[in-house]
Amino acid sequence: MPRGDKSAYTDKQKRQADHIEEGYEKRGVPEAEAESRAWATVNKISGGGKKSGSGRGKPTNEAPSKTGGKKGGAASAKRPATARAASAKKAAATRRPSKAKA
Hints:
Layout: H1 11-26, H2 31-46, H3 63-66, H4 74-78, H5 81-95
Helix pairs in contact: 1-2
């Protein structure tokens, strides 16, 4: 099988790669690079092409599909700095050991 041959991949893996590639292109990654990254992600998730046969499957690793993206701190970044600081102080206070326990 020559390098780059996708015949060993399932239809689901091919759809996954297409979807991931679209996401990269939407973020401005060049088409060839997006395709390369998409297939690398699918390989990382599934361990490569899924060949048929009993007992040959491996569990999927969903971690690679959850990394990256712009979602990160968008919600907290919209809040004013004073609100974020107040929230952080409140959280820190809950983590302090209470004097009653001692």
